[in-house]
Amino acid sequence: MVPGEAAPPGPGSPRGSAEGAAAGRKQRAAARRKAFSLFVKAKEVPAASRCPGGGEGVRWRCCRQAFEELPGIHRHVALHHSGDVGRQAGLGAALAEAGGSPAGSAARPSGHSCSNPEISWALPDTSHVSHDDLTSQVGEVLLYYCYCEVKDPEKLCAWQKALCQHLHLTGKSSAGGAHCFPDLRVGVFKEIVPMGIDPKIVSYKETGIHLSPQEFHREVEQYLSQASQGQSDTILLDCRNFYESKIGHFQGCLAPDIRKFSYFPSYVDENLELFKDKRVLMYCTGGIRCERGSAYLRSKAVCREVYQLKGGIHKYLEEFPDGFYRGKLFVFDDRYAICSNEDIISACRYCGVLWDQYKLCSSQHCRQLVLTCPSCCNKGLTACCPVCQEKELKVTSRASGQTLKEECECTRRRPRVPIENVSPRMLDTGKD
Known about the structure:
Elements: H1 14-42, E1 60-62, E2 65-67, H2 70-80, H3 82-98, H4 117-120, H5 131-134, E3 139-141, H6 153-166, E4 174-176, E5 209-211, H7 213-227, E6 234-238, H8 242-245, E7 248-250, H9 264-270, H10 272-275, E8 279-283, H11 288-299, E9 305-309, H12 312-319, E10 325-330, E11 337-339, E12 358-360, E13 369-371, H13 374-378, H14 386-397, H15 409-413
Helix pairs in contact: 1-3, 7-12
């Protein structure tokens, strides 16, 4: 530094502090403007619900009030939701650092105690909701997912867990409630549903073409029509596990006899000839497995095209409850299955009567799912196979003792990866 020359302002100098404060104010003002716009946007009435003619009629609703002009909703938000907008601005900045984005409406102050102050203020205000309503067993089960890049999954995970705990969320949308998911589990995992293939090798960005329920319905209708005449070049592929497709599936589908989704890549590898030059229509419960499964099938470059049902069977049944999906939909919670039609396509393990309500195998060695009707249950037939039934009798006859998980007749007989020898003519295109 030249003698007599003033030192440049540093971070702790008055000038440096002033510049930093000014930059901070600009950043906060920009974040607040954005949060204000998003808050107003969230209150918009869908165009289809407005008056005919487009520009007239109610355009926004908030706090049980209707607004037709933009200045009106602006004044309302400025007067009554200033605090909400401010906290939403802060939440957006915090989540941006984590690589995520706020989900849902504006955040409000929280009375929930959270050990992490950065998370605690980002939780919504539930003071207007009674504790009984928050903890009620009656409600809905929400199914959602989104494959995306997250810079700081641990931080986003911590916020999601705190949010779920704060709102008493314990677990797809369907009839249900807290009783369906007695526990809350939020964590960071390499794969949402384990397929055994590194996501960096087979990316979620290389998925098949997503079809809406309406588009998928038309494709299945065309496929069934062509398959009945032996002219189809399409495979309708169920990429769920065997016990799921056993109680419900699309008519005319190919349902692999696999026990885990991690076997799906091997199934594809062993049956590549089956998929050669075919159009493949894939589906699963909610769409998650198809994101990875379709990407893996496409990576083999043998199919003419790969499509997948967007939103899975859940979304399809919302629009076509009596469509081409017959039987029940298996779900991974205490309900085991939900239904949209009256068809029963599976049978009791022991007597063969139509039955589709799963129970756990009674043998402590196994604990697989079993279809056993009330009549057979009353006779003590509650295991998945004769081997387990015999073991269960031996265990109950003893006073006590440690039991270990063992392979039973069911798992021993089932090939890990079945080799298909199926042509479109052989697929059943009628109702099961």
